[in-house]
Specification:
By secondary structure, the protein is mostly beta strands. It folds into 2 domains: 87 residues, Sandwich (Immunoglobulin-like); 113 residues, Immunoglobulin-like. The strands form 3 sheets. Strands 1, 2, 5, 6, 11, 12, 13, 14 and 15 form a 9-stranded mixed β-sheet that branches. It has a 4-stranded antiparallel β-sheet with strand order 4-3-7-8, with no helix packed on it. Strand 7 and strand 8 form a beta hairpin. The protein is built from 2 helices and 15 strands.
Length: 263
């Protein structure tokens, strides 16, 4: 009888602890996404403007086609971009020049957004070194971009890789924080689950010299969830250079591409 009473008390105790909790989720607000770039290559250059989706929505990002978009530089040049539809805006005459600071201004939905980016002096991209590594009986290939980092510190590099004309959706960033002023010997940290190189593969690597704010944006993307070049907005917005709470990035950078065939 005593045991029965003790068991009853235990059941009542745990039953009294049960509680129905209703979570009240506040619906997130749609935010503007601005992605633009200007390079040392011949234009035109493009800015794309879309809006993020709420948690309850699915589908493609809605575009903003009635914005006023301008790009200016610290040499007094200024151009209003031409809307091309689908959220895309295009320059007609502006020329990207290394060493200049560019300002992007977007006026959309009664709000103004600005961003600045300085195009670094280009660091020559000399070649791509292919390093064969045998691991558990299988041969893997590392890609090492060969460039001579300047003695002046603070250089940042982004690499965009395609294999057999297919873009690899990963963010690949290097800098000179550890090795400054020397020839690079670090491989690109490509996720082997997404890419297994084999003999005969044709690899193209584009090297971008980027400023520190753009580097921080892509480095954070790499850490919080790689969506790769052309990918979507991540669940956590990385620190960017656009004002007024906008998502995305504006980058002024140099571009140089090298190719190699896996031997």
């Amino acid at each position: 009888m005593k045991n029965s009473i003790s068991l009853l008390l235990v059941v009542l105790l745990f039953s009294s602890c049960e509680k129905i909790v209703t979570l009240d989720y506040k619906e997130n607000q749609s935010r503007i996404i601005i992605d633009g770039s200007i390079t040392n290559e011949t234009g035109p250059y493009f800015v794309k403007i879309t809006k993020s989706l709420k948690l309850t929505e699915t589908g493609t990002y809605p575009t903003i086609d009635n914005a006023t978009v301008t790009i200016s530089d610290d040499a007094g040049n200024r151009e209003t971009l031409i809307p091309r539809g689908g959220g895309l805006y295009q320059t007609a005459q502006l020329k990207g020049t290394a060493g200049r600071t560019y300002t992007l201004t977007v006026q959309a939905e009664d709000q103004t957004y600005t961003a600045q980016s300085t195009m670094p002096t280009p660091v020559p991209f000399e070649s791509i070194k292919v390093e064969a590594v045998v691991f558990t009986g299988e041969t893997e290939y590392n890609l090492i971009p060969v460039y001579n980092d300047p003695t002046v510190s603070g250089n940042n590099y982004r690499f965009v890789v395609s294999v057999n004309d297919k873009l690899i959706n990963q963010h690949l960033i290097q800098n000179d924080e550890v090795k400054n002023g020397v020839v690079n010997t670090l491989r690109l940290e490509i996720n082997d689950d997404d890419l297994k190189l084999k003999q005969g593969d044709v690899v193209n690597v584009t090297m971008q010299c980027i400023d520190k704010n753009v580097a921080l944006f892509y480095k954070t993307l790499m850490l919080i969830g790689d969506s790769g070049p052309g990918g979507g907005t991540t669940p956590t917005n990385p620190p960017n250079n656009i004002s007024n709470g906008a998502l995305g990035i504006f980058s002024a950078h140099t571009v140089e591409t090298k190719g190699v065939t896996i031997p």
